[in-house]
Design goal:
It is built from no helices and eleven strands. It is mainly beta and 123 residues long. The mean pLDDT is 96.
């Protein structure tokens, strides 16, 4: 129901935009989030946005470089990633919080998860 795409190989300092397309139900009222898992590490929170798109929340590691947004008409959430660093290399997952109101970083709050898309940043 959540399909993430847009990953790939990029050089340090480059940009990528990830997309997360929802199908099967309308996610326009859900809080949406992005998480990532680097090789050998636990999955971590990246960014989240409320249903309106006006309230966002970022991890300190990506604040100022990444931007989360959504287009409810397209049932799609985006993650614009700029100034990429090798430490951003990870599998990125999108997720939906059906009952939440405010964007939050806690994995257990999210009810639906997409498959990941791999982002590799070369040095």
């Amino acid at each position: 129901q959540l399909q993430a795409s847009g990953g790939g190989l990029v050089q340090t300092g480059g940009s990528l935009r990830l997309s997360c397309a929802a199908s099967g139900r309308t996610f326009s009222n859900y809080v949406m989030g992005w998480f990532r898992q680097a090789p050998g590490k636990e999955r971590e929170f990246v960014a989240a946005v409320d249903w309106s798109g006006h309230n966002t929340y970022y991890s300190d590691s990506v604040k100022g470089r990444f931007t989360i947004s959504r287009d409810n008409a397209k049932n799609t959430v985006y993650l614009q990633m700029n100034s990429l660093k090798p430490e951003d290399t990870a599998v990125y997952y999108c997720a939906a919080d059906e009952y939440g109101v405010a964007p939050k970083p806690d994995e257990y709050e999210y009810d639906y998860w997409g498959q990941g898309t791999l982002v590799t940043v070369s040095s």
